[in-house]
Amino acid sequence: MPTYRFKALEDVLAREPKKVEFPSNRASNYYATNVFSQEVMREYLPKEAYTSVMASITDGKKLDRAIASQIASTMKDWALSKGATHYTHWFQPLTGATAEKHDSFFSPISGGRAIEKFDGDNLIQQEPDASSFPNGGIRNTFEARGYTAWDPTSPAFVIGNTLCIPTVFIAYTGEALDYKMPLLKALNAIDKAATDVCQYFDKEVTKVNANLGWEQEYFLIDKALFNARPDIMMTGRALVGHNPAKGQQLDDHYFGSIPERVAAFMREYEIEALQLGIPVTTKHNEVAPNQFECAPMFEETNLANDHNLLLMDLLGKVAIKHNFRVLLHEKPYGSVNGSGKHNNWSLATSTGVNLLAPGKNPKTNLQFLTFFINTIKAIYDNADILRASIASAGNDHRLGANEAPPAIISVFIGSQLTQMLDNIEKNVKAGKMTPEDKTELKMSIGKIPQILLDNTDRNRTSPFAFTGNKFEFRAVGSSANCGKSLITLNSIVAKQLIEFKKTVDAKIDKGQRKDEAILQELQKLIKESKSIRFEGNGYSQEWVEEAKKRGLSNLKDTPRALKIMTQKETKKLFEELGVFSEIEMDARYEIDMEDYILKLQIEARTFGDLARNHIIPAAIKYQNVLIKNIKGMNDIFGKEALKIAAPQLQILKEISEHVIHLKENSDKMLDERKKANKIDNFENKALAYCDKVKPYFSEIKYHSDKLELLIDDELWPLPKLRELLFTR
Ligand code: ADP
Ligand code: MG
Fold first, then answer.
1. Percentage, residues of the chain above pLDDT 90
2. Residue 342, ligand 1, Cβ within 6 A
3. Is 494:341 a contact under the CB 8 Å cutoff?
4. Domain that holds residue 709
5. Rounded to whole angstroms, how far apart are CA atoms 722 and 248?
């Protein structure tokens, strides 16, 4: 009889790739066919309704009820034609995932008949029974009142038989209960601040969009192996498992050929993603075995973020059809790289200019440098807030583990731009500049090449790197809602741009020339923010020491990283920009800490289960085999058995020692967990889980992994890492 573990492996080996046909050989034929796009609206809506909805999309104008009903009716007909039977308000609760509550279009009427019904009210506002979504004490649970409201800037779409309407999720008292609402507010803040600064350079600019191009990393695991690993099933990661003889050291997976079963899965999700208007263009193997990446063309941030959430959901659903499970955890396997999400960020004007791309002449380059340097200063001033925006139990395993950027926030800009900033730092004179000085500087600024050479070999170890025409924020966790870090990034840059404008305006009011005022202020910012710039190896120990000397933070765990969100200055920043109220910030802090506690609690329980119910029993089973053998040896050889059976005796003893430690550590962990659970204050509870409970995790793993090396392969109950990573 094969054990459960061998059965799982047999299942994997017996799998055939699923057949997936392309709907057409041209993706352009089916791109966005499941989206209620502007194109569809223009075609089907009455003119007045179309103009109204466009005004709502571009200028945030409120939609009138009558118009909403017209849109609803058109949307319903379109959705029915796509085979939809239900509709849902699709929203982003603070759990990080997306949520939906399905309602039927079907509505019985008198005389035993029925119609398909969907009106303006159903479109604009819904009240999901949302009492069990985390709200950090904003809503009293018994009231359970939060509502969702349509976000017309992100188009509705059909998945399967459901029309999905992207919505914000708000408490009746007005506080946001999701990530979308504050993201829209942050995008509004950066739009305003950046548009104001643009007036120095181009009065035609009326709007600035923040763009986001995400790259999503994930692991695939066969369904049978997933189900045979209680830890992966419960926590999304392998809590135990000895490193396989081979990991990723040969780099043979990166950009290698994609296995046929995986290729079929990719084909299917890609087709669905394209039909949903997600412009996915890139897919490849990542560094670790069974790790992959997917990236689309960048888009406006709110839409791009909706698309990322939709894609994460899609990956999961399509994977199941192919007998896979997707792991979005930041660190599923201890011995190989974890998964992140790179957020590529840039600012684009209504006139079609990328403000983070070097231009063709001194004027556009001064504009570029203005946004570039202000961004660096914003990161310098608010590095801890940015660090907090990516803090999670999962990401704690990744940051600083020599694969992802470290928990120390720094900015990489490449040698050419470093030279440029050094040049400004040295050559801008205080007071009035002579015409010669200015000409020289302008010449030099005009010389920034449009293609920056050293950004092609991009420093991969930097958490925040300039990559030619955008910044790439690489420390975001793979399972995170990108909204979280982009709310922060856009807010801190907005705040910096507002301050910049104020200072430069004051100089101009005092009679200084505009260019001179800008340059002198940029020089000041360059000097002040210098210590956040780092061009070296972010994975090295030297950097940890150097960063410490520079006074940069290195916040390694979530509870400590989140603390900054409770500080007065932080609250003031978000409040002044209109992004968060104090109540919202307190609520979010509590929710994030709660999430951390719950994740660790689940891991601790699973560790206990693994030790007591899987590993120790397997150890005892093998000990019994050994004991029987030693007894038999004794029967045959008498005293001499002690010598002949010495290896068996030795293994028997070693197993006992590890079993003792395993039991001891899991008992101690249980005690600490009980103590932690009794703590009422969530801050202290999170710290107790971090400092008192978590340290036992590595102890338990250590002894379990040693046992894995001692026990008969046939008796080991869990699929091993080599099997999880290499069986196909
Ligand atoms: P990498 O080497 O980091 O994998 P890729 O070129 O594969 O880089 O991916 C870059 C990502 O950056 C893509 O998602 C792309 O859409 C995005 N991107 C490119 N230009 C911009 C821009 N101006 N603003 C935001 N994102 C961008
Ligand atoms: Mg990247």
1. 72
2. yes
3. no
4. 595-726
5. 11
pLDDT tens string 293-305: 999 999 999 999 9
Report yes or no on 15 lying in a domain.
no
Ligand nearest to the CA of 284: 1
E strand spans, 395-548? 411-412, 464-466, 471-477
Ligand 1 centroid vs 122 CA: distance in angstroms?
Answer: 37
Residue whose Cα lies nearest atom 4 of ligand 1: it is 215
Which residue from 254, 298, 456 has its CB within 8 A of the most atoms of ligand 1, so it is best to mutate? 298
In this structure, the answer to whether residues 161 and 302 fall within a common structural domain is no
Distance in angstroms (rounded) separating the CA atoms of residues 660 and 714: 22
719 C-alpha vs ligand 2 centroid, how far in Å?
32
170 with 191, same domain: the answer is no
pLDDT at residue 430 is higher than 60: yes
Q: Are residues 306 and 421 in the same domain?
A: yes
pLDDT of 687 over the 70 cut? yes
Does ligand 1 come within 6 angstroms of the Cβ of 298? yes
DSSP state, residue 242:
P
How many domains, in total, are found in the chain? Answer: 3
Q: Which of 280, 405, 262 is nearest to 326 (CA)?
A: 262
329 lines ligand 1 (CB under 6 A): no
Q: Which of 23-37, 149-163, 611-625 has the highest mean pLDDT?
A: 611-625
What's the gap in Å between 325 CA and the centre of ligand 1?
27
Report the first-to-last Cα separation within the chain, whole angstroms. Answer: 22
Q: What is the mean pLDDT of residues 237-246?
A: 91
CA nearest ligand 1 atom 13, residue: 213
Query: Which residue, of 150, 175, 200, is where some domain finishes?
Result: 175
Q: Is ligand 1 within 6 A of the CB of residue 462?
A: no
Q: Mean pLDDT score of the chain, rounded to an integer? A: 91
Among 549, 580, 611, identify where a domain stops. Answer: 580
